[in-house]
Request: fold
Amino acid sequence: MIRVIVSACLLGSPVRPDGGDKKLEHPVLRRWLEEGRIVSACPEMLGGLPAPRPPAEIRAGRVVTRDGEDVTRAFEEGARATAALADADRIRVAVLKEGSPSCGSSLVHDGTFRGTKIPGEGVTAALLRGRGIAVFSEDELEAAERYVAGLEHEQE
Reply:
């Protein structure tokens, strides 16, 4: 069975900077949960950051809080820990929270803390992609499902 890493916040875990979640009710996620495919991960928490915590954005290649604290190291540690989970289960697919400085797969906030998103990818998304893992956002669940089905077909 093909396993999938999914951002913990999308599964209802209270791991976001505000201490909340971004639980997504979607038939693909429900089915994957029932099938035991999902490995839940929050890179920020795996990197040692608490919830709640100050929001962070990528600015000039670093991850910083609104007050200017550089939290890049924690984000990098969380990315490595997430990659280690993928390695342990030979995971080749991830569904990550768009816009996050860790998990954004095609958009991240612009570093001004004004809510503006720009093309880019988060620290974890970039590391996973660099290791050959297909990364999808929560808006691409149908594409992720097709990708997983294709991988399973290859295994037959």
